[in-house]
Amino acid sequence: MTLNTNAQNKGILRPGHRLNLSAGSASVLVALALVGLKLWALQATGALSVAASLADSAMDLVISVTGLVVIIYAARPADDDHRFGHSSAEDIAALGQAVLLSGAAVFIGYGAIDRLFADVPPPLTNETRGMVVMGASVALSIALVLWQRRVVKRTDSKVVAADSLHYIADLIPNIGAIIALAVSSVFAFPQMDSVVALLAALILLNGAARIGRRSFDALMDRSASSATMEELAFIVGGWPGVHGFHDLKTRTAGATLFVQVHIELDGAQPLRDAHEISRSLKRRIREAYPQSDVIIHQDLARS
Fold first, then answer.
1. What pLDDT digit, counting tens, does each position of 35-78 carry?
2. Which domain holds residue 277?
3. How many beta carbons lie within 10 A of that of residue 296, not counting itself?
4. Which of 36, 79, 167, 270 has its CA 20 to 30 Å from the CA of residue 196?
């Protein structure tokens, strides 16, 4: 006998999905604003550090729009063709984001190295205006990251987490661009611009590797962490009325943790009691892991 009253199967939009949608929409709006600001700053200053930040924001815009579409798709309820819902779309999008981020990082890094070792680095202009624009970009990015972090903490969405990483990574080149412009203005040292751009490229590569690894693991149906497995075993094994359990399996898809377990119950008890044990156990697991989809199989206890 199987108990599986998944909210997705009822077409209910979970609160976590609504939070993800709000984070995705905010990300698109902020990305549009940042691209506009940095285009103006690049034309005014000619700074490679600003160009690196602009490239990152342009990539953020593409990724944010894609991420919003994926979040909307992933929030769709399960249907006849996708019995476990559509949340794996998040992992596919996050993996694509990691690839795009890696490409942008390599491009920026190559340009930074080329300019760093140039005999005569191109001079920067209008540094003060550039610093004002980059300061506004920092403020917008911080506000967005704070909201995204709050959403990720409650929903564990990989798409929102990946998007947040872009803007965290964007903070460093933004701040670095301000420093580079200030150093160029005060000390006439344009090489600082290339150093900042190279540092930003390395940070992007590191972040892309982490997001890509998590997404790949999810797409390969890798089990949840050992700590999660131990906690689940503790909950199930100690639940009143459960005489034992076996075949505890987990996997993740997007922000959803899928849990499947066979519990052993007293075969002499009324069906209503057995049903209540499973229902209360499922409720307890959902309390521990709100973004979980739980399937419980009921077996007779071994003699």
1. 888 888 877 777 766 776 777 677 778 777 877 776 676 666 65
2. 226-300
3. 22
4. 36
